[in-house]
């Protein structure tokens, strides 16, 4: 059995898409960037796996957590455990994390451009990379 409905596929090469994007960026008067967790994840800030296990082994053992994100919503045994987890979470992801390459690359692409960033990220990767703080809006707070 097969479908009689035609399926459109893209055979366009990525290099063509990148070229069109670069042209559009070069010609733009202003650029608005929307960024979420994927940008930080692509820069190495994973909330699970080895990085999580290395930094939160004690919490994984006690509470059987699978990742940093879901652990922020857990009903901890005590306020002390909650704040111990949250303070380490903030430290690891905002203060101790180095700047990811995607942020550096994006800033380089925007050199000399009028830009504005809207982000759900609270890890300060944009500021650490050198983006102008006046051109950043953190929808989840700063």
In short:
The protein has helices spanning 14-27, 37-42, 49-63, 68-71, 79-95, 101-109, 125-129, and strands at 30-35, 114-119, 136-138. The longest helix is centred in the middle third of the chain and has 17 residues, at 79-95. It has 142 residues and is mostly helical.
Report on this model:
This protein is mainly α and 142 residues long. It folds into two domains: 30-44 and 98-142, Rossmann fold; 46-96, no CATH class. The chain contains seven helices and three strands. It has helices spanning 14-27, 37-42, 49-63, 68-71, 79-95, 101-109, 125-129, and strands at 30-35, 114-119, 136-138. Strands 1-2-3 form a three-stranded parallel beta sheet. Strand 2 (114-119), helix 7 and strand 3 (136-138) form a beta-alpha-beta unit. The longest helix has 17 residues, at 79-95. It is globular.
Q: How confident is the prediction overall: mean pLDDT?
A: 91
Largest sheet: 3 strands, parallel
Order of helices and strands: HEHHHHHEHE
Radius of gyration, in Å, reads 20 Å
Tally of distinct domains: 2
**Count of DSSP strands:** 3
Helix-strand layout with pairing:
Elements: H1 14-27, E1 30-35, H2 37-42, H3 49-63, H4 68-71, H5 79-95, H6 101-109, E2 114-119, H7 125-129, E3 136-138
Parallel strand pairs: 1-2, 2-3
Provide tags for this entry.
single chain; 142 residues; mainly alpha; Rossmann fold; 2 domains; three-stranded parallel sheet; 7 helices; 3 strands; 11% strand; globular
């Amino acid at each position: 059995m097969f479908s009689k409905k035609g399926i459109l596929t893209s055979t366009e090469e990525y290099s063509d898409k990148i070229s069109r994007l670069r042209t559009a960026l070069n010609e733009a008067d202003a650029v608005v960037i929307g960024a979420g967790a994927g940008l930080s994840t692509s820069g190495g800030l994973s909330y699970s796996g080895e990085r999580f296990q290395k930094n939160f082994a004690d919490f994984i053992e006690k509470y059987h957590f699978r990742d940093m994100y879901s652990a922020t919503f857990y009903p901890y045994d005590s306020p002390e455990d909650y704040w111990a987890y949250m303070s380490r979470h903030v430290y690891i992801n905002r203060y101790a994390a180095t700047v990811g390459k995607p942020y550096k690359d994006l800033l380089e692409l925007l050199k000399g451009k009028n830009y504005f960033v809207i982000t759900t990220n609270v890890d300060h990767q944009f500021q650490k990379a050198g983006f102008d703080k006046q051109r950043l809006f953190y929808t989840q707070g700063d």
